[in-house]
Description:
Number of helices: 2
Radius of gyration: 14 Å
Strand order of the largest sheet: 1-4-3-2
Shape: globular
Low-confidence stretches: 1-12
Structural class: alpha/beta
Amino acid sequence: MTHGTASWSCLTLTPSFDWSEALGWPLVWDQDEETAIQSPLDGTKITWGGPPMAPNGGRDRLHFDVAPPADGDQQAEVDRLLSLGATLLNEGQSDAGRMLMADPDGTAFCLRTPRQPGSTA
């Protein structure tokens, strides 16, 4: 899957949902209730651990948009993410090719249509 290059340090994600597997990023730290994964292209890391620092007021502090590679299949990717524990929030609906999903904690993310070759957006 193709992913952006932002960095977060106060993200609460469910360890039971394998974000490393979902994003295809290797686990680089997992100790004392802290976990980090890193882009296989170096640089970007996503870290999380412990309870949220403050209530989120009903909105997620972070929203992932993920997309299969250009030769990927969106439905196959939905099925793969469901097998990892995600849920489909807008079953039977699609907003401009985006499928709204959530991890087991209810943190929403969008699965987009496959990216075009050379796309960075």
